[in-house]
Amino acid sequence: MLTIAIIGAGGQIASRIIKRLASADDVKPVAICRSPVTAQLLAAEYGCETRVGDLSAAPSIAADLLRGCTAAVNCSYSAATTRDGRAANARMIANCAAGHGLETFVHLSSIAVYGRIVHAALGSTFDTPRPDTGYGVDKWEMERLVRSRFETARGARAFVLRIGGAYGPGQQTSRDILATIQNPGFRLPFAGERTSNCIHVDVLAATIHELTRSSAAAGTYNVADVPATSLGAVFGWHCGATGLPMPASLDAETATAEIARHVADARRGGAATQAIAAARAGVQGAIAGLTNAEALRQLVARVGRHSPRAFLDGLRRFHGNRAIGHACSPETTGGVPPGFLGEAMPGPHISEHLSIPLSTAEAWSSSSGELKEWFERYSRPSWPSAVASMRQHEARV
After folding, report:
1. What is the pLDDT of residues 15-58, one digit of tens each?
2. CATH number for 191
């Protein structure tokens, strides 16, 4: 039986992976998290073994946390906006690759490495992605850490999975989609016919389960619904499960203009993001430990007199743009979110090398009721129900 460590087990995606593995007969999940409270809740919910600690701490602590595990799935993420954050990420990856018996390491990356909108005109490719947000840069740096460390790790396979929007009960992408559906000004671009680049979180969990016991070659892969789901289909599932009305369509001319606007915006903001990332990579002094906003001010002050106007415009726009993620809301962008307008992710998909044991249709059928319950719970919170939920958890713990 495989023993699989789930790193960052308290996260929204990690908990669904634990749920999948805990119900399987051939694996034993071990939830690794920093919080004792989270560990107790996970143990009560799924009956799994939990271990509390920080994998970025001393190698001896990491070795104890990974003891007996033959595979690990890294769902953790420390924002690398400071030198300490980047150092913690590097230590965690190094500790996992240090030969503690791991045969398979699965690292969850993101579609954000391609930029806030996936579009050929931006020159972001599978081999040389061009992230244009702080989050995307962090994820790209983590990918490179994983590849460099595990290249020298004997007998260990490392997989980097670039995940599109993971949707389903409890997932931020579904929360964003449901908020967008309720926005009276939103219109579904191209009648929803474009690819969503999304994946149901239970299909993702089933994919990871299958990957850990497969003979697939190590490498970097895109991960999305198979067959690819259109944006309209994903919105339709959310509407059908919750009873919300399906958004009206946005005409092709306006949608095309929105794409052009986001591509131009990504070009301006991307120049600043990449400049800051390059500065951090090459500077060991003060700027390497600054936040994005502080680094921006330093860069403007130091190179402003010698930079072309387009570059300066990108720097000035960066601080406002960096908080806009892949699935941001129309209220913050002033139109259709960029993630709803992009092309399919470039490069190989994990389904080309692996048979996915759970179809999207099966995941929709089994979780639509759960999505409705979750939506109703968070959209109409009540103090008595919250107290009752907490008491239930206490009783189970």
Report:
1. 999 999 999 999 999 999 999 999 999 999 999 999 999 999 99
2. 3.40.50.720
CB atoms within 10 A of CB 224: 27
Q: How many residues does the chain have?
A: 397
Range of the domain at 109: 77-250+340-396
Residue with tokens 């990918």: 143
Q: Is 163 exposed, middle or buried (0-12, 13-18, 19+ CB in 10 A)?
A: buried
Full-model pTM: 0.81
Quote the number of domains for the chain: 1
88 falls within a domain: yes
Gap between the Cα atoms of 396 and 365, Å rounded: 29
Give the span between the Cα atoms of 139 and 131, in whole angstroms. 9
**Cα–Cα distance between 267 and 107 in angstroms, integer?**
28
Q: What is the pLDDT of residues 282-339, one digit of tens each?
A: 443 444 444 455 455 545 544 443 444 444 444 444 433 333 233 333 433 346 788 8
Residue 192 near residue 231 (C-beta atoms within 8 A)? yes
The C-alpha atoms of residue 342 and residue 114 are separated, in whole angstroms, by: 10
